[in-house]
Amino acid sequence: MAGIDRPRIEAAVAEILAAIGEDPARPGLQSTPSRVADAYAEFFAGVGRDAAGELGDAVPLEDGHTAETVLMRDIAFRSVCEHHLLPFTGVAHVAYLPGETVVGLGRIPRVIETLAARPQLQERLTEQIADTIEQGTGARGVLVVLDASQSCVTTRGPRQTGSTTVTVAARGAYADPTARAELMALIGRGVA
Fold first, then answer.
1. In sequence order, which ranges of 48-121 are alpha helices (DSSP H)?
2. Taking the alpha carbons of 40, 41, 47, 52 in that order, is the dihedral positive or negative?
3. How far apart are the C-alpha atoms of 178 and 174, rounded to whole Å?
4. Tens-digit pLDDT profile for residues 61-105
5. For 152-161, what is each residue's pLDDT tens digit?
6. At 144, which helix (H) or strand (E)?
7. What are the Cα distances from residue 119, in Å, to 26, 84, 100, 144, 146?
8. For 56-188, CATH number?
9. CATH of 6-43 given 1.10.286.10, 3.40.190.10, 1.20.120.420, 1.10.10.10
């Protein structure tokens, strides 16, 4: 993976193991620095990548046609909190009100995946997804809701194992409380 300095990661992990009083040469730990470097290459693959490029080419709507809300629910994602380098996982719900174009539905999860594959804060990730979709599609409105479990809350400190954090970013037409409430209702229940 470009940008990942595997030898530095491996050396740093070996040093952390020694710093906590472990023996990095112990049979169970010998491959740990390499495994952590592999994991970090995956976790941080979005560093330096252009998330807007993941949207691909937008498809113009036919003349005189407009599109109503496009809502994708329950898009699984994972990221790493920049405060403790612990993972957070959850689901994203993304709605957009197309302008003159639409994008392939598979493109939205790619945007989320790219932005999440960086040291992140959930609050900033939510805003970045909304901005990328709004700017990259010319959408008349965007709503992003992330619902995630933060390891720094569930496994250390307060150890609130059942808690999740919800963050919301609204742009354009969806900044209107009524429009946003309608979408939140659709996110919260099944749509037949």
1. 107-116
2. negative
3. 8
4. 887 777 899 999 999 999 999 999 999 999 999 999 999 889 999
5. 888 887 888 8
6. strand 141-150
7. 30, 10, 34, 19, 16
8. 3.30.1130.10
9. 1.10.286.10
